[in-house]
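Margin note: ligand = C2E.
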Amino acid sequence: MESEELYRSVIEQASEGILLVSINNKKIIEGNAAFNNLLGYSSGEVVNMSLYDIIAEGRETIDLEVDRILREKRDIRLYHRDGSYVYAELSANSITYNDQDTMCLVVHDITERKRFEEQLMFQANHDSLTGLANKGLLEDRLSQATAYQKRKNNILAIMLLDLDRFKVINDTLGHPAGDILLQAVAERLKVSVRSYDTVARLGGDEFVIVVTDVLNTNDVITIAKNILNLFTTPFTLNGQELFVTASIGISVYPFDGDSVEHLLMKADTAMYHCKGQGGNNYQFFAEDMNIKVRDRLTLETSLRKAIDQEELILYYQPKVDLTTGRICGMEALIRWRRADGKLVLPAEFIPLAEETGLIIPIGEWVLRNACRDTRRLLDKGYSGLRVSVNLSGRQFAQQNLVEMLKDALTESGLDPGHLELELTESVLMKDEEGIIKKLCAMKETGVMLSIDDFGTGYSSLSYLKRFPIDEIKIDRSFVQDITNNPDGAAIVNAILAMAHTLKLRVVAEGVETMEQAMFLVEHRCEEMQGYYFSPPLPLEAFEEMLRSGKQLTVASQHI
Ligand code: C2E
Ligand code: MG
Ligand code: MG
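Resulting structure:
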């Protein structure tokens, strides 16, 4: 009696769960306090329940497990009374108790360890920012999926999605905002795909969606369009609405290969191709894309070397004062003379330079050289000239822009009043407060500010009031419409009237005919620039034109 009592109190107070179970029918004979606590039962409640009620497995597995537990420790999932899972390590001895074959189970709680392991597992397989699958898990899923599709004779699509201009967003709004955007994109992608499709983040702004069980490419197109549609609603970053678009490159198993590596590579190629065509679209992989991507890469490599190898040159296009007919300034326009003598226009390399960040050193080179050339012309007696330099969005976002600007002015000795910077409307449409600050800091150096390609952005005219600018350049397309299209003249007139109320100088770009020039003189446009007077010229030719004293005759006729 006494030893029985002692034995009971030891068992009852043990910190490990202890359970006596009949081996025969798996009925629970008794459980101690630690066991009851672990599974949420009150004392005596488990008596007459069976192992089948508490082990979270089917009957057959439980029978097998019982045999194994008697030989070795097993990690097993148990049911808590509230239906949740508890992980336990079970070990057991068989004893004889009340003449029955009984197993004495020791139940050790390992829930915390298991949760931790699961968490580690999850972290190892998922991207920490978005919680999406990471590259490792994607590769696993893809190889499983291809094996499965092979058996079913279905196709499988791999969509590589990359946000358009993400770098610019990151640079202008900052990395924390970029992270919020990536999370929001991940969220939209997650809810849009079917539960058995995989969405992964490869890093940066690259996402992969694996679409299984599709019958043909038409289905793939529908899905790609649906994904692009997720981007028609703006994202909200720091309380500001932002429209973001994406480019999707698609490769299809089995047509584009059967290794994960090849399929991803081809989707990547297709994605780049899509970007090259302006983005905001999807594109299937096609063999000839490889060649174009290779061209692009060679272009990038040689552009990197262009500055050092002195392949970049500046052309200058005169700007004419429409009241005097005289050359009053010039726009610096970059050209790339490649080793083989071929002259490459900015449209062919500026977008690439923007995307790769090469625009920063290139832009700096342009600014320094334009300042130096202008200072020399002024020194030669061509007074009153003002040089215009184009500034890309990426450059504008640059932290040390103002320092760089001051540097270029000091180094060349150019008076800041002779320099004007051209910005595009899109640059001015991001965060207004930050932009006004930056523009003011630039203005404080003494330079002038101009808005290039005016009218092509989406902004309202009223925003001009708030920015410290001096000049707008009416986009070429409106100037062409002066004589082509009855509304064209009205639009140009409206822009002129509005700009003059705001005391802004107006320059007409791309003036090609005498009629256009005459219209501009009549409507009191201040300056013009265009092939009608002169195309952009190399420095020597531009200087020659200054020396010759060339003038616009239309202007003098009207004075
Ligand atoms: P933009 O600043 O609007 O420059 C005017 C463009 O119109 C120039 O093209 C010029 O050659 C062209 N153009 C001038 N007059 C006429 C005309 O009468 N008719 C027609 N059809 N075109 C005319 P370009 O030199 O090819 O430059 C294209 C664009 O590349 C520029 O547009 C500017 O946005 C960019 N760009 C050029 N140089 C630089 C640079 O140094 N830095 C940056 N960031 N961008 C540059
Ligand atoms: Mg310009
Ligand atoms: Mg322009």
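The longest strand covers residues 85-97.
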